[in-house]
Structure formats: C-alpha cells, structure tokens
Amino acid sequence: MKYGDITFTSGGTECHAWHFTGEGDALASEAGRPVVVMAHGLAGTKDSGLQPFAEALAAAGLDVLAFDYRGFGLSGGTPRQTVSLADQVDDYRAAMTAAARLPGVDPQRLVLWGVSLAGGHVLAAGAHRDDVAAVVSVTPLVDGMAAGRHALQHHKPSAMARSTALGIASKVGKTRMMPVVARPGELGALTLEGCLESYLAIAGPSWRNEIDAAVGLELGNHRPGKQAKHLRAPLLVQIADFDRSAPPQAAAKAAFAGRAQVRHYPCDHFDVYAGAEWHDAVVRHQVQFLTRVLTPS
Asked: Homologous superfamily of 4-144+222-294 in CATH?
C-alpha cells in the first residue's frame, strides 16, 4: 500500500510522518473518515514495524498518520536519540492536530494508537479530549516504577547498576550513549535474551541502536496509566501475558481504570510484530474493535 510523506511542526521542530489513506467508506461519516495517529515505543522509528499495522487499519477504512518523534528517525531536532517523555506526548498532540487537517478525514474522530512506551503516551495524549474517538494501547508501558521492579526480576543487579551509573553520568554531565538493545550481560537499555534479535528483525533504515543513557532516570516517574480514567473514548488494551519488558500487571490496572476492552496473548513483548506468531490476532482484534466503535450508526 502506498503512503504519502508529510511533515508537521512540534515544539518548533519539523517532524516527519507517513499518511496512509483509508480504503472505502465503511467507517466514513458525513464529515469524513476516522484517522489514526500512530507512533513507536522506546527509540523506535515508524519504519521499524509500524507499516503492517498501518496498512491493516487503512485497509479497514481508517486513514493513518504514523510519525517519528523529535530527535528520532527522519524527524528533525537535537539532541538526537534522547527520550523526553513530555516532548513525545507533545509530539503526539501536534500529530493529532496535523492528522485532523488531512483531506477526507473527520477531525472529531481521532484514533490514538501506541505500542510499548507509546502505549502509555496515548493514554496521556487522549485524556480529557472529546475529539478522540478511540484509543488502542499495545503491550503498553504505563508505570515506570513498576517497570523498574519488573526489570529487576529479569536482569542481574550488576547490569542494572552499570546502566544506572551511566545514566546518572549522562544526566549531570556530558551526554553518554548506550545501545538500545544488546546481548545479555552487555550494556544496553534492553538486554534480555532475544531482545536484540527481535528488535533487529523489525528495525528500519532510519533506526539507530543507540540511546541517551539517562532514559532510565526519565522513566522512573513515568505514570501515564493514571490518565486512563480520564479517557472519554473507548479503549482497547492488548497485553502480552509473558511480557518481560512492560509489566502486564500494570497494563491490566490501567485497562481497568480506563474501562477498556482487554485482549490477552500468551507471548512476550516483541511477539506482536509482523512475522511473529501473534501479530495476525493482534491486528484482527484492533480492526474488530475499531470497526465496532467507529461504524456510523
């Protein structure tokens, strides 16, 4: 499926996005088609596994705007490869404004879609808004403290201490980089068995395997799950029950607060992407959910 390249501005910086035009009028109202705003998780870029999701949703009749955060992928901005959670939520809001202006879409029927870290961002970006018609949160990271405790169950304390020390050094002095994904025992943000291979399997040409080491400190106070109760739109939360990267218990708690439809999958964090066993089911449930809540009455 073809897509168009567009740009929009967030925080004075030009962000790059792909626009997929929805097929058919099954979900169209008199005002136009619903439009999905989509972004990736930790250090992810839109060319790293998002296109199959976007194409499936466009085939179901939704426009899709998939974008890169400031400092990542094809978007502008400095510093590069540094995660600011507040800035990324602001990027979502700017992308929502851009999506509402696309030709043929209904600006009052925005759909927020996020995976992993972005699965939490969509809860914050969609809270208290009447122009958001649905929210899809996939294997979401919704509680930084819970994620830290979860990581301690799967990592050696020495590895956690090493990355934390580098993060503190990056925060108080010159920026220090580390790999996003690495092998067990190596320095990196994600070093569980299989993470390196899983991430490289979806990585696109704009993705870089490096991230500001201060990301762990940034995540410490991250609690977007608390915003779920402020959503005014139907919410779908898709939980990987054996998720070693984003604690499934925290996702379930946020889902309950947001009165969500919940789908569970007996898999790990990366098993929702194209080529993995559970991708087709995850996409099918998204299409079913969005068709149900967005079909004009």
From this structure: Alpha/Beta hydrolase fold, catalytic domain (3.40.50.1820)
